[in-house]
Design a protein that fits this description.
about 450 residues, alpha/beta, Rossmann fold, GMP Synthetase, Chain A, domain 3, 2 domains, nine-stranded mixed β-sheet, 12 helices, binds 5'-O-[hydroxy(phenylacetyl)phosphoryl]adenosine
Length: about 450
Amino acid sequence: MSYFNREIETMPLAQLRALQNERLKKLVQNVYHNIPHYRQVFDEKGLKPEAIKGVEDLPQIPFTYKSALRDNYPFGLFAVPREKAVRLHCSSGTTGKPIVVGYTQNDIEVFAEVVARSLYAAGCRPGMLMQNAYGYGLFTGGLGLHYGAEKLGMTVLPISGGGTEKQIMLMQDFGSEAICCTPSYALTLAEAMKQKGFTPEEIPLKYAILGAEPWTESIRGAVASGLGVAASNIYGLSEIIGPGVSQEDVEESGTGSYIWEDHFYPEIVDKETGDPLPYGKEGVLVFTTLTKEASPVLRYWTNDITSIYYDKSIKRSHIKMGPIIGRADDMLIIRGVNLFHTQVEAALDGIVHLSKNYQLAVSRAGSMDEVEVKVELAPEVFEALSKTTGQVLSHDTVVQAQKQLQIKIKAAIGLSMKVSVLAPQTINRSEGGKLNRILDMRK
Ligand code: DLL
């Protein structure tokens, strides 16, 4: 099959709704009869599965929170016997135990299909060489992108995350045309290649498919100029399927990412009341998996904050979502001020000596919350300074950059924060290459 999947991706809205309604009715019957948790949720509300006739009835159904996956660990939310799942993935939970999701053979095919669609939208074509630098393993990124790229007919290099030297060597030797990784790793690669003296024109990459953590237009700019690529956003979460829930079209850059709504039905709801919000309003993103067999979910509360909207001047009929501007559970309240870490990222924009690799360390001194912004120096600045002084962190240039950031943060956000400038690669990355943006030491 070829991707673009014209029949599905340009399906008239009325037809798409009819398809969603059909799928939803089946899904509700399935979860009611096969997952005790959902039967209990429905019974407690006195809600009959037959009452759900289409997507407009979804608000009658209570949300599914991460806690439901945790409480039913490991396989309690499966709609099929564990033996029918051909694969399991895990993602970190709020406690020590991860949350577990299963995939039937058909789920694996749907997963590959939505990722193949996504990669096509990102500019990838059959025959191109894809360097897959997402972590392979329990994380959905590696295998998710892998199967999708194969399905599209690409040549996949399953190099996984890390090992920057080898990434660069194989990229140059093999001529990788596309790379998928986290935005922070794309920046690391760009910095490393610059240090080695490569110009963007000497890098074979054309496309970068970035996701698994929030990022901004300023990061897009840095990756585009550093690697000489067109970078697009891929979004997803384990509880829904993994990467490929939504994807930005490379030719519609900055206008949002298409949600493949024949499989994943989105809603935006108020983060306090749970009430549905109109298109274009920001709130918590909620998903219902319309076709998942092993781990279906109804109204999964992602905690991701964004908006959804139909964009008329575009190639596909599916709804789009904006960038993730924060997490409902990640929003910090610091001395009464609401704070998203992306606001600090925006303040970093234009401070050339600092990289975009940062972390907010939140602590409490007495009753006052304190935020320390830890930010890594740009590698080339670090190197130049080490050569001249050997005393990187007290150098004037560093102090200046530090002050500049402090002043910008105060002006833009209204908070005074301590800024610490660190050597490159000193902030911890977690499994999958993600940089934890918030280190909350108050709890
Ligand atoms: O991160 C799946 C994925 C892999 C997506 C590779 C894209 C590429 P989880 O580990 O379950 O799954 O984490 C899901 O990561 O709820 C968001 O908060 C965040 N996230 C994922 N993609 C994006 C993105 C994978 N493009 C959680 N922009 C989600 C912002 C993202 N946040």
